[in-house]
Amino acid sequence: MAKKLNDKTTKTLKDRRKAPLATPTDLASDATRDISAALNQILADVFALYLKTKNFHWHVSGPHFRDYHLLLDEQGDQLFAMTDPIAERIRKIGGTTLRSIGHISRSQRIADNDADYVQPLDMLAELREDNKVLAASLREAHDVTDEHRDIASSSLIENWIDETERRTWFLFEASRQGDSTGH
Asked: How many helices (H) and strands (E) does the chain have?
């Protein structure tokens, strides 16, 4: 049988729910606000790009199925691996992160693709352009973190830019037309 909480315990629990998530940081409050906003925007875009990449991974078809399927799976894993460090960085500096799929959809700048069928080369081209957009957004976020001297966030962003540029490169090379021998 469940034990009933006394009134004092119930009040304490309710008060805790109202307590702000005030993680201590040496950054100024405007820095926390600006950096959190920039990183939350990146987080929404990364989740949107992750899901689009996995969508294309699941629905790719054609003679290069295996190569594209594996490429997109690898890239999806890379994108998903970014999400927790982004969110945790926001929390470390005293901000709060995205809280739901709805929050992501209201914040994302990467367009969804709900088409029933997309040609494989169109998938690669769309993801290539989306990764280029993400790289540009990461550079903008880097400007914000530099402005507020948040070296740790800047360092993480630099690595994510490199990873994003690599995805863009691979998508470009995988979509190039071969010669008459198929190479």
From this structure: 6, 0
